Amino acid sequence: MKCKIFLLLAAISLMGCAKKTDVKAKAAVSKKDTLKQEVFDEEYESEPEVVTLKELKFPATGNNAEDFVPEPCEIKMRAEGFLNDDDLKDIVIVLQNENNNTDSRATLVLLQQEKGEYKLQDISWEAVDPEYTESGYQIYTSEEIYIENKVLHIMLQSGGGPAGTRETLYKYVNNDLVLIEMHTFNAGAGSHLSSDYNLIKGVAEHEVTNTLNDSMPDKYEIKKFQLKRQMLFTKDNPNIVLENLPGSENF
Fold first, then answer.
1. Which of 12, 125, 153, 188 is deepest in the core (most CB within 10 A)?
2. Terminal CA-to-CA distance of the chain, rounded, Å?
């Protein structure tokens, strides 16, 4: 009888130990899962939010150019001069995403008002290409904008790359900022091509120079064209406009 009682007490003791061990194991697992969750939450919270410039809302007015530069924008190019018919100096800025150099770039035209503030008159997502392609290729190595004789000039140069050189000229016509001229330069195998397009007159002039044989004369071409409508700063991509203009037959 004493032996049976001893065995029963031993079994109860073993069950109690096993229960305590199981509770400790479950607590350890729970603590480990909690730590994993905390680490996951920290990693998730630390990931930066991806914002594209087209998602932003730009202010309608401001006291200076910097007032039109929300995060994550930075001013990549800037020009000052007279664009419309008043005597107030205007500003044009090209904005780039400081966190993503493949993002679309915004070109803002800020017209100065009589009291000194600036009004966002026009914005273009087409006038200036992204700085880099998605594959990491820099499209243009030199970029510049300036205002002269009430005309906005945008000069982009690839330094001999496939994009060549492209200059676009914009002028206000009846309150619309219109693409009035384009000038391009492209180098090829044994020759280079210089082209001038007057979009108001509908005239394209091409000059092809042979770079292998100096005795070969340059070839000149003049072609006429007619646009169905004006090409606008806010709407039309110059690269697409070029595709629909008459090119050279000798290049």
1. 153
2. 114
Could you tell me which residues are beta bridge partners of residue 186?
Answer: 193
Q: Whole-prediction pTM value?
A: 0.80
* Rounded-to-integer distance, Cα 249 and Cα 251, Å: 6
Burial of 109 per CB tally in 10 Å (0-12, 13-18, 19+): buried
Take residue 64 and report the two structure tokens written for it. 């200076």
- Please give the structure tokens belonging to residue 157: 């140069």
* CA atoms lying within 13 Å on the CB side of residue 240: 10
Name the helix (H) or strand (E) containing 29: helix 2-46
Residue range 211-235: mean pLDDT, rounded: 93
Rounded to 5 degrees, what are φ and ψ at 221?
A: -140, 140
What Cα–Cα distance (Å) separates residue 120 from each residue in 23, 63, 107, 117, 168? 67, 11, 11, 10, 21
Q: How many CB atoms lie within 10 A of CB 67?
A: 15
The backbone torsions φ and ψ at residue 92, rounded to the nearest 5 degrees and listed phi first, read -125, 130
Residue bearing tokens 């629909």:
244
Token pair listed for 216:
């070969």
